[in-house]
Amino acid sequence: MIETFDISESRKQYYRKLLLENPARNLVERYSLFCTEYTEFTRKRFSYIPQVMQRGWAPIVLSDEGMNYAFTIGLEYSFGHPEILIASPHRPAKVLAKMLEWFVDRVEVGEQLKVRSDYAHELRRQPEFYELEGDAAFRIYEESDADNYPCGYLYSFYGYFADRDLEIGRLPMMILELDFPIRPAPPGGRLSSLMSAAKPLPEL
Question: In this predicted model, which residue has the larger pLDDT, 73 or 94?
Fold first, then answer.
């Protein structure tokens, strides 16, 4: 999406080359461009970029229509690992953010998390997640997930900073759904009616 910048073609070519040769510097220079030329848009959509520049990734934590979820921005860009999303209808978003951090710590030291591998036993060893019931296995983000987990920040990030025009529902992401009465989540909403029938978890 570098084509949308109102800058010269030579400058666009410079950014394309910088993305390939020095991804970290690419973040810095493109963010600087946005701050200067598109200040209000940057404030609203890219406030997390300084954290990505510092740590390689940033968490986005949301609560929407009875569903709490947290996801990463930058894991694939910085570490070559799929982004991670954790969702639960009952667990507070701040708890999901801590769990997200636990998984990313492993990615940062070179571990590749695996789809369908159950991480529940390891999570229960952590004080914050000791009462976790059931399994904790990732699956791949699918097209139907775009209805349940809209991740607009990711589309913007990879479009404007990595020149990737990702199709809706085609995010490079792994999903971990906790406390669901069914899995995977069906398309078309947040499952609020199904969730209300499920037995709530005790307060954390």
Answer: 73
pLDDT score, position 195: 41
SS (H, E, C) the chain: CHHHCCCCHHHHHHHHHHHHHCHHHHHHHHHHHHHHHCHHHHHHHCCCHHHHHHHCCEEEEEEECCEEEEEEECHHHHHCCCEEEEEECCCCHHHHHHHHHHHHHHHHCCCCCCECCECHHHHHCCHHHCCCCCCCEEEECCCCHHHHCCCHHHHHHHHHHHCCCCCCCCCCEEEEECCCCCCCCCCCCCCHHHHHHCCCCCCC
**Token pair 């510097």: residue:** 25
* Most confident by average pLDDT, 34-43, 77-86, 127-136, 138-147: 77-86
pLDDT tens for 102-118 read 999 999 999 999 999 99
pTM for the whole structure:
0.83
Distance CA 191, CA 177 (A): 12
Q: Show the tokens assigned to 108.
A: 């940062």
Residue tagged 């791949």 (tokens):
140
